[in-house]
Design a protein that fits this description.
Radius of gyration: 19 Å
Largest sheet: none
Shape: globular
Helix content: over 70%
Number of helices: 9
Number of strands: 0
């Protein structure tokens, strides 16, 4: 049995040993990430628990599709995404003085939807050529076009811009062609 199957089946069966194993193996990494990103221990505990619940709900309701990475990487990415979402929500609350907060259930649904979108994006990004993957990765990391020219050995920044545009268009096309796209858009 693969690690992914072990964890997914353990969550599905509410197996205490598997849940304990998840806490022992993955929690320290989540705590470290959250502490390094403006959080506290209690935040890490909340995020970890929410992600465990999200994955559990996803397994039971929608049947978790195959995980393209390890379960640990999948779980950690979900924690990172949820923590970033929480930080963004705190910024909005601080900056706008919102009087009414979104309900916990709605928030979890949004986080689950966001995670599924991220998975679709990553899956389709992997289907692009190595050149497109590399140029889009640089673009997403906000690398300047001048630096892209050097890194990718392009002749001009215009060529780099055109390449980014073409690769983004290809990615959008294959994402929209997937049956899951309509279900995941707002």
């Amino acid at each position: 049995m693969s690690d992914n199957t072990y964890y997914i089946q353990g969550i599905l069966d509410s197996n205490e040993n598997v849940i304990t194993d998840i806490y022992i193996r993955f929690f320290p990494k989540v705590v470290k990430f959250i502490l390094q990103n403006n959080g506290q221990q209690v935040d890490a505990e909340d995020i970890f628990q929410k992600v465990l619940l999200q994955i559990s709900a996803r397994i039971r309701i929608r049947e978790l599709q195959t995980i393209n990475s390890t379960f640990e990487a999948y779980f950690f990415t979900a924690c990172k995404n949820l923590w970033r979402r929480e930080l963004n929500k705190k910024k909005r609350v601080t900056n706008i003085d919102v009087k009414e907060l979104v309900s916990e259930e709605l928030d979890m649904a949004h986080a689950l939807l966001e995670q599924e979108r991220w998975e679709l994006f990553k899956e389709k990004l992997e289907k692009l050529s190595d050149n497109c993957k590399e140029i889009l990765t640089l673009f997403l990391k906000k690398v300047s076009y001048a630096d892209m020219v050097k890194k990718m050995s392009y002749t001009t920044e215009t060529v780099a811009r055109q390449r980014v545009f073409k690769c983004k268009a290809k990615l959008i096309k294959i994402i929209k062609a997937d049956d899951r796209f309509d279900k995941l858009k707002l």
